[in-house]
Amino acid sequence: MNVEDLARSIRLLVLDVDGVLTDGGLYYLPDGQTAKRFNVQDGLGIKIAQAAGLHLGVITGLDNECVARRVSELGIREYHPGFRVKGPVLTDMCERLGVTLEQTAYLGDDWVDVGPMGMVGLPMAVANGQPEILDMAAWVAKARGGDGAVREAIRFLLQCQGKLDAQWREWQEQSEHLSDPGSQSGQ
Prior knowledge:
Shape: globular
Strand order of the largest sheet: 5-4-1-6-7-8
Structural class: alpha/beta
Helix content: 40-55%
Number of strands: 8
Largest sheet: 6 strands, parallel
Radius of gyration: 17 Å
Strand content: 15-25%
Order of helices and strands: HEHEEHEHEHEHEHEHH
């Protein structure tokens, strides 16, 4: 089966954080906290995927307050921090959502992602993933982690599922409605 056929059956996309949703950098602040950089195009892609009916989940080895905040802002309910062994969490998530592992894609970048990538129907990687992860991936983004790779993966899935154009048309219609001065009441 080719990668487009695999993508057509995906109902759940699970993401790693460091090196996938972020650029992998850790920014140490004077107060001892760490900060991370997220890509807004990835965030909008996640919202589009949700609107198209795709489930999203996040499993990360670290537990960081800024990640929890970003995931919450994006409306991702399946957030599981502090798991370096990700396979059992992935299995539980699939069971809760009523999705099989074959209907699941996982986007990773490093060795901590080997477990879930070996379990899912569509293993995916960011362009700057480790060589072993790139070898495991059925699909590899052109973008690096934290630099639009999540958006690229979502576009690929939605395009293969025939949902991308409908999401674009809906976005255009909403934008036209919002830009119509007569559509804004109370001003």
